[in-house]
TrEMBL record:
Belongs to the UDPGP type 2 family. Residues 7-268 form the Nucleotidyl transferase domain. CDD domains: UGPase_prokaryotic. It catalyses: alpha-D-glucose 1-phosphate + UTP + H(+) = UDP-alpha-D-glucose + diphosphate. Keywords: Nucleotidyltransferase, Transferase. This is UTP--glucose-1-phosphate uridylyltransferase. It comes from Microbacterium lacus. One of its GO terms (molecular function) is nucleotidyltransferase activity. It comes from the Bacteria.
Length: 298
């Protein structure tokens, strides 16, 4: 278990335009991955790392997020009366996971601005930021390792993952030096979506961060960058360039299972992979895939 002072921040104010029209009235974080909304996987990951205080940054028309983690007594009573205790437990689970708070971002000024909105709630403590586009398999813990490294080395920590060099242009990329631990590197610089030729490594930034409270002052003085938004990457770049602000910026290299739900094709792949691992769904789905495989176009 990690320090009880660690809180998690989940930015969930994006418009989800890649999934229109499904996200016209439904937050993208509520899109189901198998039979749970994506954001519930993220909350469960935080809880598994010992975090019980979670702040979700939301935008307009995101009330469904708060509703999902609230009690629905009429539904609970109906299921209880039917004796359907399995469904009752699944319905009640989200509201008992953690102490979950919500705050509006207001103007959509980027990820850095969304993180800045957590300043009052987080206070002067180290905290985790978890993006909902990246789902980390519960069997391959990442966040607990990042918190361990952050607290042990008094460092800002960014999650990194090796990707094929041909894909690095889709990610932020880290320029790193090795340390005395094989899964920990020191970040010298961050490059946003470089070409394969310009990339300093094939280590991509994925959506998990453990940040020290000094990040807030840096964000307050960070000018809008790409897209006219306040970029978290720009603030991290400043921290990496000047350790006197908040100590070193380190990367934890993750080699486990990660599911990218950021675009439609990867979202579908993620749902299939997670369903295949389920005892109640996997055998039937695997049989169906084998059945239709010969008929699929090459």
């Amino acid at each position: 278990m990690t320090s009880p002072t660690i809180k998690a921040v989940i930015p969930a104010a994006g418009l989800g335009t890649r999934f229109l029209p499904a996200t016209k009235a439904m937050p993208k974080e509520m899109l189901p991955v198998v039979d749970k909304p994506a954001i519930q996987y993220v909350v469960e990951e935080a809880v598994a790392a010992g975090i019980d205080d979670i702040l979700v940054i939301i935008g307009r028309n995101k009330n469904a997020l708060a509703n999902h983690f609230d009690r629905v007594t009429e539904l609970e009573h109906t299921l209880e009366a039917k004796g359907d205790h399995g469904k009752l437990a699944r319905v009640m689970e989200p509201s008992s996971l953690a102490d979950i708070h919500f705050v509006r971002q207001g103007d959509p000024k980027g990820l850095g601005h969304a993180v800045l909105r957590a300043k009052k709630h987080v206070g002067n403590e180290t905290f985790a930021v978890m993006l909902g586009d990246d789902l980390i398999d519960a069997r391959d813990p990442l966040l607990s390792r990042m918190i361990e490294v952050s607290l042990g080395r008094s460092a800002t920590v960014v999650a990194l993952m090796e990707v094929d060099p041909s894909q690095i242009h889709l990610y932020g990329c880290a320029d790193v030096d090795t340390t005395d631990e094989s899964d920990v590197v020191k970040i010298k610089a961050l490059v946003e979506k470089p070409s394969a030729e310009e990339a300093p490594s094939n280590l991509a930034i994925i959506g998990r961060y453990v940040l020290k409270p000094e990040i807030f002052e840096v964000l307050e003085n960070t000018e809008p960058g790409k897209g006219g938004e306040i970029q978290l990457t720009d603030a991290l770049e400043e921290l990496a360039a000047d350790e006197s602000i908040a100590g070193p910026v380190l990367g934890v290299i993750f080699s486990g299972r990660r599911y990218d739900t950021g675009d439609r094709l990867d979202y579908l792949k993620s749902s299939i992979l997670l369903a295949l691992d389920r005892e109640d769904l996997g055998p039937g789905l695997a049989g169906f895939i084998k059945e239709i495989a010969p008929t699929l176009p090459e």
